[in-house]
Amino acid sequence: MLIGQAEGKLSIKFQTAFPKRFRDEMGDQLIITKGIDQCLLVVSIKNWETLLEGTKDMPFIDKATRELQRYLFGSAELVKLDAQGRFFMPEHVRLYAKMTRDIIFIGVQRYVEIWDRSIWHDHQESIAGSVELLTINLSKTKGHE
Q1: Arithmetic mean of pLDDT over the chain
Q2: Domain range list for the chain
Q3: Are the C-beta atoms of 111 and 46 separated by less than 8 Å?
Q4: Alpha helix stretches (DSSP H) within 44-145
Q5: Phi, psi angle pair for 26, to nearest 5°
Q6: Model confidence pLDDT, tens digit, residues 80-119
Q7: How far apart are CA 58 and CA 125, in angstroms?
Q8: Which among 32, 54, 30 is positioned nearest to 41, based on CA atoms?
Q9: Is 92 helix (H, G, I), strand (E, B) or coil?
Q10: Which residues neighbour 138 within 8 Å (Cβ) at sequence distance 6 or greater?
């Protein structure tokens, strides 16, 4: 299971090292793509179907299915980690996530998110006061009122 966080840096040549604790579980071939929030999603090759969540088995004629799959798969890149676990951050995803030098890797059970560190901290602050409301809303959707 992928949990926790690790800080990282982008080099001048836009390379970064994927944290060893995540690399050990995910391997050295990864798929990186735009996330739903202003972050990047990273999945292992063996777990690529995670990107289909919510659209798997949906008909091709469904516009929302096509659009979300285009968004996720159209911006996806296969990256191979070198012996030190480094990879080149593709420009189109780096620009989307407004990556600066300081980044943070977040383990989210089956995938890893990569955030610009300052955007991550702002995001954390924005949801910190509404965690209780989030749990109430989730319990309503699961029928646990």
Answers
A1: 87
A2: 2-117
A3: no
A4: 63-74, 91-96, 117-128, 131-141
A5: -95, -20
A6: 999 999 999 999 999 999 999 999 999 999 999 999 999 9
A7: 35
A8: 32
A9: helix
A10: none
pTM: 0.85
Q: For the chain, give the longest Cα–Cα distance.
A: 51
| Tally of CA atoms within 13 A in the half-sphere of 124 that contains its CB | 10
Location of structure tokens 């977040």: 106
The token pair at 107 is 């383990």
Which CATH class, in words, describes the domain spanning 2-117?
A: alpha beta
Residues in the chain: 145
Residue 5 phi, psi dihedral angles, 5° rounding = -140, 155
Q: Which residues contact 61 (CB under 8 A, 6 or more apart)?
A: none
The answer to whether 127 touches 134, Cβ cutoff 8 Å, is yes
